[in-house]
Design brief:
With about 425 residues, this protein is of the alpha/beta class. Helix content is about 30%, strand content about 25%. The chain is built from twelve helices and 21 strands. Helix 9 links the parallel strand 12 and strand 13. The longest helix is centred in the middle third of the chain and has 19 residues. It binds ligand LLP. Ligand LLP binds next to helix 10.
């Protein structure tokens, strides 16, 4: 669900034609729909309302402070994984008590900053990390809360590079070790261990992995409570799906119907439920607008070469991820009803959409049925709002795109396009 629609063959973000944005801001450009962010955030809150969860938006998916600020205004907390993300959260005015901080490699400086900021919970990934945070808190005379990240050892049935909740992983500790963890560290005066954290991978298009994982966490909570450890919060992580293809993801109600009943008893006993959604809120809220540079034949294949690529949207190269691509301006009869890999339209040709980067992997779409396009035409790469700009780089010394946020009929540049001067701004001056 999003607010990118064709009107008379022109793709609009809310009420603004994407071509008008590209005329003014150039390409490539990430264009976001504020209404889509808000719609997803509100729908998620609504579906899980019975649990009154704390929703900590996962900054790693989409970190522009303008976008974060709008989510904060709606009551969102933040899920951060670095000092840099904490800085972004602070800059966006997030309530620090609603910030959770995960990540296997927190440095002393990052930990001190988070202690000083008085964040809600440190999500702890190992014994060594607990000891280090407790030591630093002690030195600073500070106090913080900790959630232990446990691996429920369920298969999230997603890409190997984004599966995290199994036993053999660098994240968290397994459930058997969790019991010992609480025995050893459960009484620390500087770091109160009073919560559990799960994150089993993403995206997860079935509800079963959540059901299994939460079921195991609830059993663990009962055992820990029986041993005198008060568990005040359960953070079930992120990973809810997005519609890269039409209707690919379960709805929030589908997730909630299975998850809410499992957590109701915990909530009734005064427990707080935390969610860490990223892509499900952000992915469909953004597109990457690009321009066709050249068309080239390579043997039997047709390559559409565009002015963006893996340096701005890494997901296809990294995970073979599908992103629907369609011109921003087409004959109204040639607008697909649904964004799928095989649109049911006449006159399509099979082509590869590729970027300018000197790597064979720089492919945005492989052997895809597309409208024939020409040099100078613009294409929209859909569902690029999450892990698009967030994972963009300057590889091949390419400046990163502008970011534009649309609200109704207004489009605002929320990050200017990088310049060549930006590329060398941090190289120290020559001799
Ligand atoms: N919480 C934790 C602890 C996480 O590690 C992640 C994502 C999330 C929440 C948010 O997951 P989400 O709701 O956005 O699925 N770059 C990849 C995905 C890697 C996700 C890493 N962790 C992508 O482009 O699909």
């Amino acid at each position: 669900m999003d607010f990118f629609r064709y009107h008379d063959g022109r793709l609009h973000c809310e009420d603004v034609p994407l071509d008008a944005i590209a005329d003014a801001a150039g390409t490539p450009a990430f264009v976001y729909s504020q209404r889509t962010f808000e719609h997803h955030y509100d729908a998620l809150v609504g579906a899980f309302a019975e649990l009154e969860p704390t929703i900590c938006f996962s900054i790693k998916s989409c970190g522009n402070v303008h976008i974060l600020r709008h989510l904060v205004a709606r009551g969102a907390g933040m899920d951060v994984v670095s000092g840099g993300e904490l800085f972004r959260a602070q800059h966006a005015g997030a309530d620090m008590a609603r910030v959770v901080y995960a990540g296997v490699g927190k440095t002393d400086q990052e930990i001190r900053d988070a202690l000083e900021a008085r964040i809600g919970w440190f999500n702890i990934e190992s014994e060594a990390e607990f000891e280090n945070i407790a030591r630093l808190a002690g030195e600073m005379g500070a106090h913080a809360q900790a959630a232990l990240r446990v691996n429920p050892d369920v298969d999230p049935q997603t890409h190997a590079k984004t599966s995290t909740g199994q036993k053999e992983t660098k994240f968290g500790v397994d459930i058997e070790r969790a019991r010992q963890f609480f025995e050893t560290y459960g009484k620390n005066p500087h770091l109160t261990l009073n919560a559990l954290h799960l994150h089993i991978g993403s995206p997860i298009y079935q509800t079963e992995p959540y059901e299994h994982a939460i079921g195991k966490a609830i059993t663990l909570i009962q055992q820990l409570t029986a041993r005198g450890h008060a568990i005040e919060a359960l953070d079930i992580g992120g990973g809810f799906g997005a519609d890269y293809e039409a209707n690919q993801s379960p709805s929030y109600d589908d997730y909630a119907q299975r998850i809410v009943p499992l957590l109701q008893p915990f909530k009734r006993n005064g427990g707080r439920v935390i969610l860490e959604p990223g892509r499900t809120i952000a992915a469909n809220a953004g597109v990457l607008v690009t321009e066709v540079l050249y068309i080239k034949q390579g043997g039997s294949r047709t390559f559409v070469i565009v002015d963006t690529g893996m340096h701005h949207l890494l997901r296809p190269a990294l995970y073979d991820a599908f992103h629907f691509i369609w011109p921003t301006h087409v004959d109204p009869a040639l607008v697909p009803e649904q964004r799928t890999a095989t649109p049911d339209l006449p006159g399509l040709v099979t082509c590869d959409v590729v970027g300018p980067i000197c790597e064979t992997g720089d492919t945005l779409a492989r052997e895809r049925a597309q409208r024939p396009v020409e040099r100078g035409q613009r294409l929209a790469i859909f569902a690029a709002g999450a892990y698009g700009m967030a994972m963009a780089s300057n590889y091949n010394a390419m400046p990163r795109p502008a970011e534009i946020l649309v609200d109704g009929d207004e489009a605002q540049v929320i990050r200017r396009r990088e310049t060549y001067a930006d590329l060398i701004a941090r190289d120290l001056p020559l001799g």
